[in-house]
Amino acid sequence: MISYNDKLWLPAIFSFHRADTVRRLAPWLIAMLVYTQVVAVVVLEVHHLTGPADWSNVAQMHSLLGFVISTLLVFRTNTAYDRWYEGRRQWGQLVNSSRSLALKLAALLTSPVERAAFRDLIPAVAAALALHLRGGADPEGERVGGEGADGQSDASATAGRHEPNYLIGQLFARLHALRRAGHFTETELLLLNPELTIFSDIVGACERIRNTPIPYSYSSFLKKFIVIYCLTLPFGYVMSLHYWVVPVVTFIFYVLASLEQIAEEIEDPFGLDANDLPTDEIAAGIRRVVGETLG
């Protein structure tokens, strides 16, 4: 995720980060510029040779459709941002629950061995969830496993295993083993249960966001609408703008297509794109806080 100062205008205006839509849309922008230039030359030449042409109906069509396309884009970006923010809210809850569980265990556990085991297991849930949500893509190449209930490292986990669920299960198993060994009372075990339940709920909520994309028909229709709208723009305004229609139409296409590009990027907030959630940093923060609490 890009860190920036939202109060500084000049860096935002003149910097072109790799996430900027200008870079990704460059081929489309060049194609639209060339297309509009060709339309302008043909229409203006035909106008001079054959007399005035009435393009007022095309301009009126764009006036009517402008409200429709703006409404669709507002809905598209709002829906994508809602998914992004919901993902951030779930990871914020994961931070709070991990901290809360570590604080409770720090008060209940006296064995250095058991404290070390939970110091490894609790943050391993967040690290495993980050990898799971992006299909196992790990840019850091770090181990995400912890120690299982038997004290053995699970770094060499079975391929295809649901790692977050496995680690949550290991937390349950270890806590119940400590209860049977007399380290906890039944009441104290119940005190620890809400955090483990929240872990499982967070995994399910994040999977729901990742596995439920915007319906293809809606996304496909909006892309077609933007392209057709911009392809017909030169015909409606070339007679009034003349060759200024080339930069104007190209800029309009840039604005509309950029909104769609931004929505595409943030609707899946768990990947490795520049504007996705910093799940690796959040997981590292959980490991640091839990390590300090159970150290």
Q: In percent, how much strand structure appears in the residues?
A: under 5%
Largest sheet: none
- Give a count of the beta strands, DSSP E runs of length 2 or more: 0
Q: What's the helix count?
A: 9
User: Whole-Å distance between the termini?
Assistant: 30 Å
Q: What's the order of the H and E elements?
A: HHHHHHHHH
Low-confidence segments, given as residue ranges, are: 141-158
Instruction: Give the rounded overall mean pLDDT.
Output: 83
| Rg, Å, rounded | 27 Å
Helix percentage range: over 70%
Q: Class by helix and strand content? A: mainly alpha
**Backbone shape:** elongated
What's the topology here?
Layout: H1 9-14, H2 21-50, H3 56-108, H4 112-133, H5 163-180, H6 186-211, H7 216-241, H8 245-266, H9 279-294
Helix pairs in contact: 2-7, 2-8, 3-4, 3-6, 3-7, 3-8, 3-9, 4-5, 4-9, 5-6, 7-8
Give an account of the 3D structure.
By secondary structure, the chain is mainly alpha-helical. 74% of the residues lie in helices and 0% in strands. The chain has nine helices and no strands. α3 packs across α7 (216-241). Residues 141-158 have low confidence and may be disordered.
Outline of this structure?
With 295 residues, the protein is mostly helical.
Which short descriptors sum up this protein?
0% strand, 74% helix, mainly alpha, elongated, 9 helices, 295 residues
